[in-house]
Amino acid sequence: DTGVSQDPRHKITKRGQNVTFRCDPISEHNRLYWYRQTLGQGPEFLTYFQNEAQLEKSRLLSDRFSAERPKGSFSTLEIQRTEQGDSAMYLCASSLDRGQFVSYEQYFGPGTRLTVT
Amino acid sequence: AQTVTQSQPEMSVQEAETVTLSCTYDTSESDYYLFWYKQPPSRQMILVIRQEAYKQQNATENRFSVNFQKAAKSFSLKISDSQLGDAAMYFCDRDDKIIFGKGTRLHILP
User: Could you tell me the pLDDT band of residue B18, with boundaries at 50, 70 and 90?
Assistant: First the structure.
């Protein structure tokens, strides 16, 4: 396994268009996270999944954003009616919840850079 | 709100010298984990070091070590013998609320 992958790496779209990003986590990892990162800032949590269940969503995740992880493997993040303020790096990370011993050590993907013009 | 604070937006250190990055956090939990992640320019974030809050002993990974002061809710990262490849953004993270600090940009001066 080569780690967390994200596709596409870069996306340029016009305001008002819909975009969808994909994340493939490390295969045995049951937790998957989405973050947004703007230049010079730390990652801002958007949402996370435990297997296929979406357990927590940030208030940053407006109703234009939706995330899925249908079979507990890969995940998609869709942004509808994009706005210029959505321009950012979208990071995906995964981790392994071992039950009693849980460290939440996250492995990050390279990110998808979204530019909304 | 429970937060993670990195008070040094940028730091510089001479190559081969030692530098300490600070991080303070807020929590009402007794058991938790703390992490330092490194994000080199245009590259993906990777874990540098992890500390388990119930362990008294400070974590060490080669040139990287932490000074964990649980009562003070402080978790600083010490980088010894700094190398050019250490130049990056460093983020402190407290795991249970998936909260990252705003980061410290570390410059290594040759």
Answer: very high
